[in-house]
Design brief:
407 residues; mainly alpha; three-stranded antiparallel beta sheet; elongated
Length: 407
């Protein structure tokens, strides 16, 4: 998705600038308007801008769990009748991390200058996503901020659970792959050189597999600075490529085509889209703005680009059903749910059912992935052990046979 640099003025006329990922300048202007910002200039950002954000933009001051806790605490304090300034001040005093306290302090300072809460949040895009800011603005305009915060807390809880499920499923294979890489380094650096010295002293012809293993070991031992530098350069280049718009789009497309995990990530993204869209529509956000914001929050740039077609279709006057069907990413069952929701006037409720449907698919895919990955890892480990064992012990076996023949 293209990145745009923008400049404008907030609700009190103060100058603000930043960058924004959007499908077009028009959608970028709509997104900024939803944050309470009047755009004055919007232009395509250079490719290096996206990379700079990835490398030097830093991590958010508030994690997802802290943002969820912030939402629940602020909702409870507002429902209890506390003024928003006093509520934020109390939360700042009880903040457990300095970075969180600093963000809350800056929110209080912005409110003290006459800005709205949503406008103050828009100045912290790493901590408050555009979707979150837009819904807070809706809550301010409708006088239902506490209700919106409660819904946002539930939405964040779903997001955290979904990410944690995927991470849990990938944790075991990741650990095995790391352990495998460490074991290969130890074998090549410490084990094979010992056997290599013994074999060279015997002055016998070694099997091809043993020669290959010894050659790899010698290269790693003699040129380890080159190997280490090449590995670091590869990691640095990969991270820079993934931080770029084109790189992230290509990677997300490749991942979706991967066996087992591709279906899992596809269903997780659509579950996030369905539940987020249900939240925004139920909260009163305009449909086109809601779809655009939600499409940017699915966590996959390729699917996000497809879902932008939904917004474009709705803008042209098409039904949500027809627009979703044109993307080619929704299952027929979910499309039927959307059709029923549009006909019955309960689209937000049916979208929640669609999210539940996709969530069940994610659970099934996680179980299937765990069952499929274990035997694959066992085969890979067995193959590596077999190659190492044959390469190391075949010469010993040949020497033993030769000694027995002479005897």
């Amino acid at each position: 998705m293209p990145t745009y640099s923008w400049s404008g003025r907030d609700t009190v006329g103060g100058p603000v600038t930043g960058t924004l990922d959007s499908s077009s300048p028009e959608m970028a202007a709509m997104t900024l308007a939803g944050r309470g910002i009047t755009p004055l200039k919007i232009e395509p950002a250079m490719e290096k801008t996206a990379e700079a954000v990835g490398w030097f933009g830093g991590s958010p001051n508030m994690s997802s769990s802290e943002l969820q806790l912030f939402s629940r605490q602020l909702q409870a304090l507002l429902r209890a009748g506390l003024p928003i300034m006093r509520a934020l001040g109390a939360m700042q005093e009880s903040a457990t991390r300095p970075t969180v306290g600093r963000v809350l302090g800056e929110l209080c300072s912005s409110l003290d200058q006459g800005r709205e809460l949503s406008t103050a949040m828009a100045h912290h895009p790493k901590d408050f996503p555009p979707l979150y800011v837009a819904l807070v603005r809706v809550g301010e305009q409708t006088g239902r901020l506490d209700e919106i915060l409660k819904r946002l807390a539930g939405w964040l809880e779903f997001e955290i659970k979904t990410r944690e499920r995927v991470r849990t499923a990938l944790r075991y294979p990741s650990f095995v792959m790391i352990a495998m890489a460490v074991a290969l380094v130890v074998v090549n650096v410490f084990v094979i050189p010992r056997f290599s010295a013994v074999y060279k002293s015997m002055k016998v012809e070694l099997p091809v597999m043993t020669q290959i293993l010894i050659g790899m070991s010698d290269f790693i031992v003699n040129f380890w600075p080159l190997v280490l530098g090449a590995s670091a350069l590869a990691v640095w280049s990969a991270r820079g490529w993934l931080a770029s718009t084109a790189g992230r789009l290509t990677w997300d497309r490749i991942v979706l085509r991967a066996p087992v995990i591709g279906r899992l990530l596809h269903n997780a993204a659509l579950s996030r889209f369905s539940r987020s869209l249900a939240l925004t529509l139920k909260s009163g956000l305009p449909a086109t703005q809601a779809i655009s914001l939600v499409a940017q929050a699915v966590g996959n740039e390729y699917i996000s680009l497809r879902l932008e077609r939904v917004r474009a279709g709705v803008e042209r006057g098409e039904s949500l059903l027809r627009s979703c069907a044109s993307t080619g990413v929704f299952t027929p069952i979910v499309l039927q749910m959307i059709a029923v929701g549009e006909e019955a006037g309960s689209l937000d409720e049916m979208l929640e059912h669609a999210a539940d449907f996709y969530e069940q698919d994610v659970e099934y895919d996680l179980q299937r992935m765990s069952a499929a990955i274990e035997p694959i890892l066992i085969l890979v480990l067995g193959g590596i052990v077999l190659v190492l064992a044959l390469g190391v012990f075949l010469p010993i076996w040949d020497l033993g046979k030769a000694a027995m023949g002479r005897g």
